[in-house]
Amino acid sequence: MQREVLMAPSRASNVADRIPLLEIVSVEESKLLHQHNDEPDTLSAKPKLSAQQMADQALQSTNPKSQAALSRARAQRQHSLQHAHIEASQCMFEIFTADGGLSNGRSYAFKCESNVERDNWVLGLRRQMVAEHERFLRENHRTNFYKLQRWMKQVYDSEYCSCTGAVMVLVNFIANIVQFEMLPVEGSHELHVFQIVEDVFTVLFTLELSMNMIANWFYPFWSDTWNILDFVVVLISIVAIPLESMPGVNVLRLLRVFRVVRLFKRLESLRTIVESLTAAILPVTNAFFVLLLIASLYAVLAVMLFGEKDAELFGSFSLSLFTMIQVTSGDGWVTDIVRPMHNNIQSHDAPIDLFFTTYYIITGIVMLNVVVAVLLVRVPCTAYSSYPCNVCRAHRRSILI
């Protein structure tokens, strides 16, 4: 679509004229100063006077002082007119167009309120003119690769191709599950069938990756993290094919299972969840850091208080910290840790109960819920970042309530 310079009267919505940017030859400062210099001097013109006025003028002309005052007034008036004409021409610019087309070689003069406004207009129009000419050249001198890239992008971004890629990933993952469930013996017919299936999916995924690289080459492809992950997984699958007999190739075979991660790229809803969780890593890490500080503080106190009594659980800081993390998870901390520390099975040691109960309330109940609250606040706002901000704020308020 052609871009144009539209002209309209002041405070009016209707367009009076238009200049296509492609027809603009140059935008220059105005050269109309000579036109103003040709204007007649209004003070030097001699109007028609009556007889009485001519007599009065003759009497005044005999006075030297009156003649000098009149000459000074005429000179000041002429100087002010020339200065006004110069300023007017300095605040103007002209647009010159090419022959033919809509403008047909006409030139347009525009007046601005200041030199700064004129310079901004001239600079902006020159930039837009150059950009429009470059865009026209790009669109009319397309290479065969560009045409192939555009067609490939339409095919790759289509819904049919996306659904086909998702189905291939799911079928390949199901085949991996069946293979690891059956665990076929080396050299058996079943293992040979699974290898053929694996090679077929490797070829299909390689073709899909090639389509993606052609459609989004160069920067759009390598700037996407999902494309880089896709490239690494497919590359590992290709490298593992000729290295079947080499030692350590089983590690590459295990990495091929990560093909299912490519499903996140294909399905928009799954990709949104993963990207939201990734964006919430930093806030959740801060909450876990506070949790670790509290666990470390209690671990140091536990070494000082219970290290001699139960060296297996609290003999060092590392053992004590692992024990406190077990308490945080709620995994049998009462029956396996606290009760054996009592002096009598039928009695309770109040300081021990208070120590572990307060720790579990702070970490197992309060801090873990803080982590969940951070996820509930950050993930929805990241997932619906395209929505207006008031939607996110309303969602956050509903969560907090």
Short synopsis of the structure:
The chain has 401 residues and is mainly α. It is 68% helix and 6% strand.
Q: If you had to describe this structure to a student in words, what would you say it looks like?
A:
By secondary structure, the protein is mainly α. It folds into three domains: 4-140, Roll (PH-domain like), CATH 2.30.29.30; 148-266, Voltage-gated potassium channels. Chain C (Four Helix Bundle (Hemerythrin (Met), subunit A)); 279-400, Helix Hairpins, CATH 1.10.287. It has helices at residues 33-37, 51-61, 64-90, 115-140, 144-156, 159-182, 189-215, 219-222, 225-240, 249-255, 262-266, 268-279, 281-306, 311-314, 317-329, 333-338, 350-383, 389-400; strands at residues 4-7, 17-20, 24-29, 92-97, 107-111. A three-stranded antiparallel β-sheet has the order 3-4-5. It has a two-stranded antiparallel sheet with strand order 1-2. Helix 12 crosses helix 17 and helix 13 runs antiparallel to helix 17 (350-383). It is flat. The chain starts with a strand and ends with a helix. 10% of the residues are buried.
